[in-house]
Amino acid sequence: MEKKSLSYEKKKQLNQVAATMAVENMLLTKASYQNLYSIASGEKTVEQIIDEITAKYKREV
């Protein structure tokens, strides 16, 4: 699947989120960053991401 590109403003906001988390010593994982990117680009909704994460951890238990 090809990723949709983000506007300059969306990229800036995404980087600000990552920087804020880093300042608090909570680095984003690659998967977390990809989830934020998917939401920001409109590829997925927050509900879709939540459902995917929930399904992943239900299988692991």
The amount of beta strand, in percent, is under 5%
**SS elements, strand count:** 0
**Large-scale geometry:** flat
Order of helices and strands: HHH
Instruction: Work out the radius of gyration.
Output: 13 Å
Uncertain runs with pLDDT below 50, 5 residues or more?
none
Q: How is this structure best described in words?
A:
This protein is mostly helical. 70% of the residues lie in helices and 0% in strands. It is built from three helices and no strands. The longest helix has 16 residues, at 8-23. The protein is flat and about 40 Å long. The chain starts with 7 loop residues before the first helix and ends with a helix. The mean pLDDT is 92.
For the structure shown, list the relevant keywords.
single chain; 61 residues; mainly alpha; 70% helix
How are the SSEs ordered, and which strands pair?
Blueprint: H1 8-23, H2 30-41, H3 46-60
Short description:
This protein is mainly alpha-helical. It has helices at 8-23, 30-41, 46-60.
